[in-house]
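Good morning C.,

I know you're traveling, so I'll keep this short. The sequence:
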Amino acid sequence: MCPACMGPENDTLISEFLLLGLSEEPALQPLIFGLFLSMYLITVLGNLLIILVVSSDSHLHTPMYLFLSNLSLVDICFTSTTVPKVLWNIQTQRKAITYAGCITQMYFFLLFGGLDDFLLAVMAYDRYVAICHPLHYMVIMNPRLCGLLVLVSWIMGSLNSLLQSLIVLPLSFCTDLEIPNYFCELKEVVQLACSDTFLNNMVMYFVSVLLGGGPLAGIIYSYSKIVSSICRIPSAQGKYKAFSTCVSHLSVVTLFYGTSIGVYLTSAATHSSHSSAAASVMYTVITPMLNPFIYSLRNRDIKRALKRFFGMAGTKGTIISR
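The tokens, ready to paste straight into the viewer:
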């Protein structure tokens, strides 16, 4: 352990971390600011539109769209844990984030990232029941079970983020407090510690396997059953109709896990901190931004609901103008 980390008063010396961001070049900061602001506004407005359309259209008051509206809410919150701080730091030309702010950001980032994971697994189960047990769908996916699935997802996400954030608190840090990213990523914060991080690393790996691999295994199992069921449908039109109900969700799953695994491989293969930070943009900003487009462009029900929603808004506007 380094000398700077010794002494009972060490914890009081840690007041803030430095977020290095995507680039230290001053000329690139306006471009980064514009890109992040644009992506953030598109993410918030796109996901908010999905929530409004689902809540206002009675045709979409089904389990599938209940889970979708929850996913959109989580995506808004997930992006809001990181992007506003990036914009603030660029605008004020500061890189600092307080110790308390870093722990808080880490907690909410883990919470909403985990919720994305759980909700995608719940949505896969919903598609499995709809295609493999269509006659019993409304009985199985009753409001009580749907509410329970969402509640369990929130509880599991909260417990995971609380556990991993709390075990960071006892860590001691040396003088190097630079985080090579634009947000407080758990692994990178732990790597800055001078004290023993064996427990933190074990918990991170265990949680990654259990809470990351578990939902993914559930999704893979659900879709293996879905594919098997679709193959038994005699007509080509029936197969297409059944598969079309899964396309949007399958696209979002591929995007979420594809970018997450891509970021992990990038960080493992390269020693460039800026490359790892740039790769993190894929699943922290771009994926939540693209989700509303995937569901609105690939889903007929959402398309019809959007037309009705804007049609009603246009009608109200005409009446008011008169």
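Safe travels,
E.
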